Amino acid sequence: MTSVAHQKLQNGSRAAVIFKDLVSRPSGAIGLSLVIFHVGLALISPFVVPFDYKLQNSALMLSQPDAIHWLGSDHLGRDVFSRTLMGGREALLVTGVATPLAVIWGGFVGILFGLVGGRVDEVLMRIVDAFLSLPWILKMLVLIVTFGTGIEVLIPTLAFFYGIPVIRIARAATHDVIARDFVWAAKARGHGRVSIIWRELLPNVLDTLMVEGAMRWSWMLLAFSSLSFLGFGVSPPTPDWGLMISDARGFMSFAPWGVIGPVIALSSLIIGINLTADALAKALGIDRAQKAPM
Amino acid sequence: MSKQPFISVKDLSVGYNSRSGETIEVLRNVSLDINRGESIGLVGESGSGKSTLALAAMGYFKRGLRALSGSAHFDEIDVLALDRDELQKIRGGRLALIPQNSGQSLTPTMRIGQQINEALRLHSKVGASQFQSRVIELLAQVRLPDPTALITRYPHELSGGQQQRVAIAMALAGEPDALLLDEPTTGLDVTTQAHILELLRELAQERNMAMLYVSHDLGAISRVCDRVVVMYAGEIVLTGTARQVLLAPRHPYAHGLLKSIPRLNQTSLPLALDGRPPMPGEAINGCAFADRCALVDEKCRTTPPDLHPIPSGENVRCFKSDMIADMPALNRKTGQRNSARSDVDSAALGLESLAISYEKKDWLSSLLTPGAKPQPATVDAINIRIQRGETLGLVGESGSGKSTILKAIAGLISPKEGVLTLHDNIILTPRVEDRPAPTLRQIQLIFQNPDDSLNPRHTVAQILAQPLRLYYSLSGSALHDASVDLLERVRLGAHYLDRLPSQLSGGEKQRVAIARAFAAEPEIVLCDEVTSALDVSVQAAVLDLLDDLKTQQGTTYIFVSHDLAVVKAISDRVAVLYQGRLCEIGPADAVYEAPFHPYTDVLLGAVLEPDPDIAPNLSADDVVELSPPAQGCCFQRRCPRKLGEICDKETPPVRELANGHIICCHVPASDL
User: Across the strands, what pairs with B85?
Assistant: First the structure.
């Protein structure tokens, strides 16, 4: 088996090999296509939508899907199809910025805790645990209610709360790596602390952080949509899936088309991200299921 | 009884599908028969397919592998045709497997009695009411002391050897007719290993079992097996009785393999077997061993040899089996070790009353248990002066403090007491962070397992650049040239620079680790079990390389190993440690000959030679002690030569016999 891996590795850089492995897996190929589709759509949707997303038409209130309005219209007579196409823009923007921020700050703190070790680390981690045990929605609502809604509040809030679980992961990965002989070897040679972190530790923790980041992204999307659903996310009339579901929920019994579009869009994006994260973990070789003992 | 052998594998090929869709064979047309009461040893280098064959014989294939052709029968049952449930009935019951580290596979939270009960419930017909008595019987059968008390113990309360015995008892619970052993003693101490092998031998005879013993350790094979099967690159290349194969091998590979094993009665380095075996899937036109064989000719490269019987009784896959006995030296070098440059009497390193303790002074526990006596130090009273250009071997079982001493010298652990001096005049600060750069450069460390000591994300170039940048601030083409030079010195080429450790074989990885240590142009190199993770043939090559580098650079080595034969092959002086205390030190020849310290005697007695005529001499129990005794001699609890109270109470005297040979023992030297 190893020889095949060798030959594969020799045909390009590690990133290229991992990418090839990723797309060769069905879950990776499907997941990545879904994610690329959604991101692409978010970029071009303002130019391709058939109708203005905020154009109200009282004659068309809750009208059924037809040849002109493919997904019907909502309670204000707006075109659901156009709104669905554009409904992911805000969510992708906010989570797309907040996820890297979460991984960076969570990863940084986690690595720091892992390096410090001992009692200090134990005490700080119990604080992290306590924090994680609180329902996330409560914590987030407190901040949003205090500072108001809007991107400038949502991004740091989501980044902050979603960085906390990353601390755990980064710390555990750091603990694994610092016990290994190559770190001891660097220490014995007399390398400085910064050099050891940068050269020896980080490249080995990065894989785990990447997968964790992808997982956090999908959770964060769900959280963002939930906030919108509750009325704390995107403010109307900007289209957003969570908000659309919330608005159309009351009419679901006689006008279900208002919910179906955004639900499919949101779930396909989240499934896509999850599949990609899963395949990425396998491509990087950090998938636990594969490491099961004989 | 049946006509067919008890375990019968016929023309079995095993392979997997590569990503590109080809079928890659890892076993090619292998046949193996084992009768009841017979024990077969399966040997070969890692990757030769020996474990795959053993597992296939019980119908088990690792993920992705499958049988391509051939058959495997167990007591006339076709195991390849059975489904999962039917196989499960046989495995663990009539056919038991004891894998490597099986002692560690015991469930830590279950008592020993419960674990064996479970095996009885699943795999035997014993009624629940008889479990208790049967468990005691089984524990007695594997020669564990006081079985009744043992039932209520947890695995962590047992030593490694005892855990392994419990695992064997569990395998015996189903009254197996056949036992498959996959490296069952690898990772155990020499004395423990010797005891376990004796037990297996006796059990196989008592119970008339068929036994298949997979190992790379020919010494272990020679103790338990009647017949030996040698595998190379997925094929069987030689089968014969243990005596035939081990004493007069009729295949050049087996011949080379045996020559590469260091032995106690040799003073020189073992001969290395050059090259590496072909990878699975690599095209082989003729004999798979042709590239490494000294007898190779045109026919070997074009025609694959068959496994055929020869007049003396063995089966050989070689055209020239009659030429092996008077074969030219297979190897590049004569294997003569370069001796130390003893002309200059200057110390490279001095250890003065070194003591190391892992115990931390904890205010909480000292508050809770006031007046508690501190534990005796892990390493204590070590006085060794190492000459320039000398190789000092440190031997002892696990827990003897060998690696701890190396870590203290490298500055990774601070000693509790004592002084470390470099060149008699520089005092080494305990912590590596406080040492000045020139001192750091002079002491380099090589680790046991290169998989762990090389950063998996760094290419060979990046690995070598670390010390070159740090100590010599090299960059650009100077860095490149220095790296290539280093690779050439460890007999690798410039084309290795861009590879990652995962693209190298075990031996190549260890060479890169050695190159990294020598990048610093060190004066002292600390070698921590550097060959124990390697195959024997690779081990010989690495020892040879270390010896060559020493000749070129005049390096001083401190060589830690649990393998007494390896230490003898490479060392000028040898120190024997037990529980972190020095038992004996002296020139290698003197230490390996009488008079011995009793512990040295026990260790040497347990060494297994790949020779069925040399039986180990087991004089002490294989008990593992967790901490050294508070007073008296460190070896008092296991010593077969114990005098009495004096050994318990008084620290043994340091007696210098002759020529720097020191033995620390109360027994007069003339009696040792």
Answer: none
Residues 6+ apart with CB under 8 A from A129: none
d(CA B201, CA B205): 6
Residue B63 has phi, psi (to 5 degrees) of: -45, 125
Alpha helices in B44-111 (DSSP H): 50-57, 84-90
Contact B503 A191 (CB under 8 A): no
Q: How is B423-487 classified by DSSP, letter by letter?
A: TTTEEPPSSGGGS-HHHHHHEEEE-S-HHHHS-TTS-HHHHHHHHHHHHH---HHHHHHHHHHHH
Q: Supply the DSSP symbol for A27.
A: H
The angle that helices B460-472 and B476-489 make with each other, rounded to 10 degrees, is 110
User: Domain B347-357+374-671's class?
Assistant: alpha beta
Total-model pTM: 0.81
- Look up residue B155 and give its amino acid: P
Does A1 contact chain B (CB < 8 Å)?
Answer: yes
User: Is residue A200's pLDDT more than 60?
Assistant: yes
Task: List all residues 6 or more positions away from B636 whose beta carbon is below 8 Å from its beta carbon.
Answer: B629, B642, B647, B648
- Contact B597/B588 with Cβ under 8 angstroms? no
Q: Is-contact B487 B497, C-beta < 8 A?
A: yes
Of residues A167 and A150, more confidence is placed in A167
Q: What are phi and psi of B558, to 5 degrees?
A: -115, 115
Q: Per CATH, the architecture of A95-238 is what?
A: Orthogonal Bundle (1.10)
**Cα B196 off chain centre by:** 15
Residue B464's pLDDT is 93
Residues B256-275 have a mean pLDDT of 82
Query: According to the per-residue pLDDT averaged within each range, which of A4-8, B31-35, B63-67 is highest?
Result: B31-35
Residue type, B402: K
Exposure letters A91-112 (e unless 16+ CB within 10 A, then b): bbebbebbbebbbebbbebbbb
Tell me whether strands B347-356 and B308-309 are parallel, antiparallel or unpaired: unpaired
Amino acid symbol at B241? T
Contact between A89 and A241 under an 8 Å Cβ cutoff? The reply is no
Domain with CATH 3.40.50.300 in chain B: 7-94+176-323, 347-357+374-671
**C-alpha distances in angstroms, B161 versus B53, B144, B189, B428, B578?**
27, 10, 8, 39, 18
**Burial class of B198 by CB neighbour count within 10 A (0 to 12, 13 to 18, 19+):** middle
Q: Do A185 and B453 touch (CB under 8 A)?
A: yes
Write out the two tokens for A96. 């797309």
Residues B518 and B515: their CA atoms lie apart, in Å, by: 5
Tokens 């896509």 locate to A272
Which 3 state secondary structure label does DSSP give B547? helix
Q: What pLDDT, in 10s, does the model give residues B359-385?
A: 665 666 666 666 656 677 888 888 898
Q: Supply the ipTM of this predicted assembly.
A: 0.78
Assign B78 to helix, strand or coil. strand
Chain B residues touching residue A199 (CB < 8 angstroms): 455, 458, 466
Pick from B58, B404, B466 the residue to mutate for testing the A interface (most A CBs within 10 Å): B466
Give the B window 274-303 contacts with A, CB below 8 Å: 279-282
Annotate B233-262 with DSSP letters as a single string.
TTEEEEEEEHHHHHHS--SHHHHHHHHTS-
Contact yes or no for A1 and B457 at CB 8 A: no
For B7-94+176-323, which CATH class? alpha beta
- How far apart, in whole angstroms, are the C-alpha atoms of residue B121 and residue B128? 8
Q: Do B502 and A5 touch (CB under 8 A)?
A: yes
Residue B143: strand, helix, or coil: coil
The residue assigned the tokens 């016929």 is B10
- Closest CA–CA distance from residue B127 to any residue of chain A (Å): 30
